[in-house]
Write a structure and sequence with these properties.
Elements: E1 6-19, E2 22-36, E3 41-45, H1 52-59, E4 67-72, E5 75-76, H2 82-85, E6 89-92, H3 96-99, H4 106-117, E7 121-125, H5 133-150, E8 153-157, H6 161-167, E9 170-175, E10 178-184, H7 185-190, H8 195-202, H9 209-214, H10 245-249, E11 254-258, E12 261-264, H11 268-271
Parallel strand pairs: 3-8, 3-9, 6-7, 7-8
Antiparallel strand pairs: 1-2, 1-4, 4-5, 9-10, 10-12, 11-12
Helix pairs in contact: 4-5
C-alpha cells in the first residue's frame, strides 16, 4: 500500500487552439509530477497562466489529461471510475458566485460534503484570493480546523506565498506548465534554489520598513513567453540571469538536491 493518497506522474494537459489560420497546441501542463500524503497540504504557486488551475482540474478529470497518470488511494483515476472517486475528492472553485449557495455559510458549504461523503482530498483553487485579509485568515483557519478534525488532504492553489506557507506542509512552484521546485514549506521560503522561486520570494512584502529597504529585490527582465510559442530547453531561460547554452538545449531534470527538496535547473549547484 502506498504511503501517498494522491500520486501524479508525468501529467500533461494540452489544448488545441486556433491562432490566425492554423491550429496550434497549447501545453498548459507539461510533465508535472508530485505526491500528497493523507492529511497533508501541498501548496501550488506561480504566476497567472502558469497552469496551476489546469493541474487541479486535470486531477479530477474535469479536463481529460493528455498524458500521464493520477492515482488516488493507489488506484489509477480513469474515465470509468472518476464518478465513483468524486465521492472522495472534490474541488473548491475560484469563483464563489458561480459555485456556492449564498444561503449557506462557507463552513457549512465545505463541511457538509466532508461529513456526508467522508472526503479524503480537496483541490482548493485560489479559495481566498478575492477576500479581505482578515476574512482570508478566518477561512484558512477553517480549512485547518476541518483538516485536523477529518484528516482531509488539500492541494492548495494560490499566488500568495505567505498564505501558502501558512497552510502548507510542502510547496510546489510552477512556471509555464512545469514544476520547477518542490520542498518543505519552511525550507523553500528560507532557502529557495531555483532562480524563479528566488525572484518570487524577493517580491514578498516585509512589514518592517528598515528590513524591507535592505532586501535585495530580484527583478526579472522580459515578459512571460506565450505557451503557444515556448522557448527551447528550460522554459525560464529567457528571463533567467544565469541562463547558459545548455539551458537552451534541453529541459533540466527535476532532481533531488537535498532530502525532499527537488529543483529543475541545470545550474542549481553553481548558483546556490
Amino acid at each position: 500500500m502506498s504511503e501517498y493518497l494522491v500520486e501524479v506522474e508525468h501529467l500533461k494537459q494540452y489544448f488545441q487552439v486556433r491562432s490566425g489560420f492554423k491550429n496550434m497546441t497549447l501545453k498548459a501542463v507539461d510533465d508535472v509530477s508530485f505526491c500528497i500524503k493523507p492529511g497533508e497540504t501541498l501548496g501550488l504557486v506561480g504566476e497567472s497562466g502558469c497552469g496551476k488551475t489546469t493541474v487541479g482540474r486535470s486531477l479530477l478529470h474535469l479536463y481529460n489529461p493528455t498524458g500521464g497518470t493520477v492515482r488516488f488511494e493507489g488506484e489509477e483515476v480513469t474515465k470509468k471510475n472518476i464518478q465513483r472517486m468524486r465521492a472522495k475528492m472534490q474541488m473548491v472553485f475560484q469563483d464563489p458566485y458561480s459555485s456556492l449557495d449564498p444561503r449557506m455559510t462557507a463552513e457549512d458549504i465545505i463541511g457538509e460534503p466532508l461529513d456526508v461523503h467522508h472526503l479524503k482530498f480537496i483541490v482548493c483553487d485560489e479559495p481566498v484570493s478575492a477576500l479581505d485579509v482578515s476574512i482570508q485568515a478566518q477561512v484558512i483557519n477553517m480549512f485547518e480546523d476541518l483538516q485536523n478534525q477529518l484528516g482531509v488532504a488539500y492541494l492548495f492553489i494560490a499566488h500568495d506565498l505567505l498564505v501558502v506557507q501558512h497552510i502548507s506542509n510542502r510547496i510546489a512552484v510552477m512556471y509555464l506548465g512545469h514544476v520547477v521546485e518542490l520542498a518543505d514549506a519552511n525550507e523553500l521560503m528560507s532557502d529557495p534554489k531555483h532562480p524563479y522561486t528566488q525572484s518570487l520570494l524577493s517580491a514578498v512584502p516585509i512589514p518592517d520598513p528598515k528590513t524591507a529597504r535592505k532586501k535585495n529585490r530580484i527583478v526579472l527582465e522580459g515578459d512571460v513567453p506565450s505557451p503557444l510559442n515556448m522557448p527551447s530547453g528550460c522554459p525560464f531561460r529567457t528571463r533567467c540571469p544565469y541562463a547558459c547554452d545548455k539551458c537552451a538545449e534541453s529541459m533540466p531534470d527535476f532532481q533531488e538536491v537535498s532530502a525532499g527538496h527537488f529543483v529543475a535547473c541545470h545550474r542549481v549547484g553553481e548558483i546556490n
